[in-house]
Specification:
The chain has 302 residues and is mainly beta. It is built from three helices and 14 strands. It has a twelve-stranded antiparallel beta barrel with strand order 2-3-4-5-7-8-9-10-11-12-13-14. It is globular, with a radius of gyration of 25 Å.
């Protein structure tokens, strides 16, 4: 009798465990009654140069330092590279503040050493990628900025109107996170310059930003981006320099409240009007630049 009762108990317990496992499996496979947002598509609000669909949360402030050294000059003589410590002797820098007004609306301001440019931008979350019932496949954000060049005019004989110093950029940031390890970014871009160097240069530039991010570990990512211009090929500026497409690769390293981004790029400009439409460095080891972005977030939620 004891053996029979023990057998019945073991059989009953095994049936309960199997039933529980089947129930949990059914719950996992059952579509959610409400679509859940996909989070952490990228590590930061920037991929390398391009903005991502990530935004500052409401009442959070991000202090951001963007830094680009001079060209490394590796393909030239050892004296050239070593004399400038492979570009470390000189740099371009941008200091910026970015604040989340709401979880969908973010504002930012900054100042770059390149052309002594001041800029302000707005980024708004139009749609977010979701999973579950009635899921949405991508996240979509709008980004728009205005920049003003405050460099002294080289030509003192022309009227230097304030409006001629303004430029504008507009982007749709379309992002998709495929799994925990891989995300992509597509950024159709329109840029307008109120004043250009030569008559042959268009005031409007169209481009497509392409980016991808691969998760290496919970705190590190590998990023790559390429931004082909669509209507300004074979263009040169007043100094005779050609314009090139921006190419960058980089690594994200998260340490507590900081995100440190180390990268290599052929662009020394730090806002869209500069690195998309005004990159004058070819894609080779002579012109490549080491750079980094450093951000620190502060919370004002009490």
């Amino acid at each position: 009798m004891r053996k029979l009762l023990l057998f019945i108990f073991v059989l009953f317990a095994n049936t309960i465990v199997n039933a529980q496992d089947d129930l949990l499996k059914m719950l996992d496979e059952m579509p959610s009654a409400k679509a859940q947002p996909v989070i952490a598509t990228f590590k930061s609000t920037r991929l390398v140069n391009l903005h991502t669909n990530e935004q500052m949360r409401a009442k959070h402030l991000d202090f951001r330092i963007q830094h680009r050294f001079q060209a490394m000059g590796i393909e030239k003589s050892n004296h050239y590279g070593l004399y400038n410590l492979f570009g470390l002797d000189g740099a371009q820098m941008r200091l910026g503040l970015e604040y989340g007004i709401t979880n969908k609306l973010m504002l930012g301001i900054g100042r770059s050493t390149s052309d002594k440019t001041y800029d302000a931008f707005v980024k708004y979350k139009i749609a977010e990628q979701t999973v579950g019932k009635k899921s949405f496949p991508v996240g979509i954000n709008y980004f728009g900025n205005i920049g003003i060049n405050t460099m002294e005019s080289a030509n003192k004989n022309i009227n230097n109107y304030l409006t001629s110093r303004f430029s504008y950029a507009h982007q749709l940031l379309i992002a998709r996170k495929f799994n925990d390890y891989f995300s992509i970014l597509l950024a159709p871009t329109f840029i307008h310059y109120n004043l250009v160097d030569t008559k042959t240069q268009p005031n409007d530039v169209y481009a497509i930003g392409l980016g991808a991010s691969v998760k290496i570990s919970p705190s590190t990512r590998f990023n790559v981006e390429y931004i082909p211009r669509l209507n300004t090929k074979n263009q040169i500026n007043a100094s005779g320099e050609s314009y090139y497409n921006s190419v960058s690769i980089g690594f994200d390293i998260e340490t507590g409240g900081h995100v440190f981004q180390l990268h290599f790029t052929n662009s020394n400009g730090l806002i869209e009007q500069q690195f998309i439409g005004r990159t004058v460095n070819p894609i080779n080891l002579t012109a490549i630049r080491l750079g980094f972005n450093l951000s620190r977030t502060f919370s004002f939620v009490f």
